[in-house]
Design a protein that fits this description.
Structural class of chain B: alpha+beta
CATH superfamily of chain A: Cytochrome-c3 Hydrogenase, chain B
Largest sheet of chain B: 3 strands, antiparallel
GO molecular function (chain A): NAD binding; NADH dehydrogenase (quinone) (non-electrogenic) activity; quinone binding
Mean pLDDT of chain A: 87
Order of helices and strands of chain A: EEEHHHHHEEHHHHHHEEEHHHH
Radius of gyration of chain A: 21 Å
CATH class of the domain at 74-173 in chain B: Alpha Beta
Organism (chain A): Candidatus Lambdaproteobacteria bacterium RIFOXYD2_FULL_56_26
Radius of gyration of chain B: 33 Å
Helix content of chain B: 25-40%
Domain NADH-quinone oxidoreductase subunit D (chain A): 123-303
Membrane topology (chain A): Peripheral membrane protein
Number of helices of chain B: 5
Strand content of chain A: 5-15%
Number of strands of chain A: 8
Number of helices of chain A: 15
Keywords (chain A): Cell membrane, Membrane, NAD, Quinone, Translocase, Transport, Ubiquinone
CATH architecture of chain A: Orthogonal Bundle
CATH class of chain A: Mainly Alpha
Distance between the termini of chain B: 113 Å
Structural class of chain A: alpha+beta
Strand content of chain B: 15-25%
Shape of chain A: globular
Distance between the termini of chain A: 58 Å
Oligomer: heterodimer
Largest sheet of chain A: 3 strands, antiparallel
CATH topology of chain A: Cytochrome-c3 Hydrogenase, chain B
Number of domains of chain A: 1
Chain lengths: 373, 211
């Protein structure tokens, strides 16, 4: 007597306060038992009107606000904004300042990827890697603190150069750290990268094919995880990157298919290796000299619009700035990698388990403040 | 999404089992080894972290104490402040409030070795550290190095008003204002005297030319 039971999809809210969403994001999930039928991200809980603030404060005064756009990689956020304003002004940045920018930017990229990897591992139930990676991040924080006096919101890169010169033995200290860090990364590989449980959990999960990644405008490690070899540092070079020798790692489906969660994780691991490589070259090439270009006290960029893109740990960060020749921006738009990474979740999530969604969010490395600005 | 393994047999099952168990022991060995490493955690309130030299007395790890350029609480050295208000204009969130009056001209050498001329004195120099975001934009353009960050970061009071730090006392402000009034009177007198002298000198000069 097969009496048909009426079944319906259950709507579940994941977040806004959820430990694995890395900030305040809400996912409205329609589930069929344990399987996700539909997943709609709901963003905007961390909106702080940073773009509007840029119209109220002067050009230099906006730099500390860019720290808050992406707090895990403030140096790169500073850099993107200052680079855009410099392009408007036509300012020449001294060579030493450029090398310092690359060095602090790459150190910050490492520390940001450490959080991304550690948080992914923690969301999947491995607490040890997170603690171990945060310990490594502390050493980077110490180095950046020596350079600028802050540990999270640096405000180090300024329009025209950098704000402070580094202490005399700073580059040697960075070299010492890299020696130690390479061994630590080897240990991390043993702990998570080669761990069969972790690999089976991440491989073949939430595959984003190459075409889909391009269609959804993924950027940075998420795009490269899908096998697209695109890195702004190499393809649209800025600063002193053309002089530096580095590889652009891409996902090759090392444990499963191209574009699965493990590939995105693996690309981040490889990028840390490349950052170490870049830092080693910078230590050798670091020239002496000025750290601040010629910039007036009151900046008034000429009228016009500019869009400048830089490669930050979460991908292509673009600053679209419209100036009307006054002491603050007429309009400023920030384009971040996390926002487009969110848009791919509704397309990939159907068919995943709820626990796998957490792995997907972790592998996309979404940071909530960058999402909402 | 195809989650099932390609070849499902007892052999692969055993293989997976062995792999899983060995990688678990691999992780455990790292955890065990780190038990014998030097502890890196700084037991913060028990040790002094304000400088590296202080820290190494009670701490054996590899982390460093705070550097001298740490951007902590703001402090203003009123001895060398020229009340030029550059810091006030540089602050993006307007947490510095300055008013100034005229004072006796004074020349001195600031922190950076730059010569500074003071013509105005502050009657009010308030910093609202409740608003401050410690970005350092005020200390960078300071011509004398009067406003600077200290390594002090423990300054939590029990009410918000106590976070507004006043660097000019009411007595000093009154003194400066009184002196400003005197200067104004003196200047007026000097101006009047000068005008008088010019007025006296002027008609005397053209006369010889007219002749």
């Amino acid at each position: 007597m097969g009496k048909q039971l009426r079944t319906e999809l259950m709507t579940i809210n994941m977040g806004p306060q959820h430990p694995s969403t890395h900030g305040v994001i809400r996912f409205i999930i329609k589930t069929d038992g344990e399987v996700i039928h539909e997943c709609q991200p709901d963003v905007g809980y961390l909106h702080r009107s940073i773009e509007k603030i840029s119209e109220k404060v002067n050009w230099q005064g906006f730099v500390p606000f860019t720290d808050r756009v992406d707090y895990l990689a403030s140096m790169n956020a500073n850099w993107a904004y200052c680079f855009a304003v410099e392009r408007m002004l036509g300012t020449e940045v001294p060579r030493r300042a450029e090398f310092l920018r690359v060095m602090v930017g790459e150190l910050n990229r490492i520390s940001s990827h450490l959080i991304a990897i550690g948080a992914t591992a923690m969301d999947l139930g491995g607490f040890t890697p997170f603690i171990q990676l945060l310990r490594e991040r502390e050493y980077i924080n110490d180095l950046l603190e020596m350079a600028c006096g802050a540990r999270l919101t640096y405000n180090y890169i300024s329009i025209g150069g950098v704000n402070y010169d580094v202490p005399r033995n700073w580059t040697e200290k960075v070299g010492e750290f890299l020696e130690h860090f390479e061994l630590a990364m080897e240990q991390m590989n043993r702990l998570i990268s080669y761990n069969r449980i972790f690999i089976n959990r991440m491989a073949n999960l939430a595959v984003i094919p190459r075409e889909m990644a391009i269609q959804y405008n993924l950027v940075g490690p998420n795009l490269r995880g899908s096998g697209v070899k695109f890195d702004l540092r190499r393809d649209h070079p800025y600063s002193v990157y053309p002089e530096l020798d580095f590889e652009v790692p891409v996902g090759v489906g090392i444990e499963g298919q191209v574009g699965d969660c493990y590939d995105r994780y693996h690309v981040r691991m490889m990028e840390i290796r490349e950052s170490i490589n870049i830092l080693r070259q910078c230590i050798k090439m670091m020239p002496p000299g000025e750290i601040q270009g010629k910039v007036k006290n009151v900046i008034k960029p000429p009228e016009g619009t500019i869009h400048v893109r830089t490669e930050t740990p979460r991908g292509d960060t673009g600053y679209l700035i419209q100036s009307d020749g006054k002491t603050s921006a007429y309009r400023l738009k920030i384009r971040t990698g996390s926002f487009t990474a969110m848009s791919v979740i509704p397309a990939v999530a159907p068919g995943l388990f709820i626990a796998d969604l957490i792995a997907l969010i972790g592998s996309l490395d979404v940071v909530a403040p960058e999402l909402d600005r | 999404m195809n989650m099932t393994p390609k070849r499902s047999s007892f052999g692969t099952y055993l293989n997976n089992l062995v792999n899983g168990v060995t990688s678990m022991f691999e992780g455990m060995s790292i955890t065990l080894a780190s038990m014998f490493f030097r502890a890196q955690t700084i037991q913060y309130p028990d040790v002094n972290i304000h400088s590296n030299e202080e820290l190494v007395k009670d701490y054996k790890g590899n982390l460093r104490g705070m550097p001298a350029n740490y951007r902590g609480m703001l402090h203003v050295d009123m001895e060398i402040c020229t009340a030029c208000m550059i810091c006030m204009k540089a602050c993006p969130i307007d947490c510095i409030a300055i008013t100034n009056v005229k004072c006796d001209k004074r020349t001195f050498v600031g922190v950076g070795g730059k010569k500074a001329v003071q013509t105005r004195a502050a009657t009010r120099f308030d910093i609202d550290l409740g608003k401050c975001m410690f970005c350092g934009l005020c200390s960078l353009p300071c011509p004398t190095g009067a406003i600077h960050h200290t390594t002090q970061f423990e300054f939590v009071p029990d009410n918000l008003e106590a976070l507004v730090y006043k660097f000019v006392t009411p007595q000093e402000a009154q003194k400066a204002e009184a002196r400003a009034k005197e200067i104004e009177v003196e200047e007026k007198a000097a101006k009047a005297a000068k005008a008088k002298a010019e007025a006296e000198a002027k008609p005397a000069e053209p006369q010889p030319e007219n002749n």
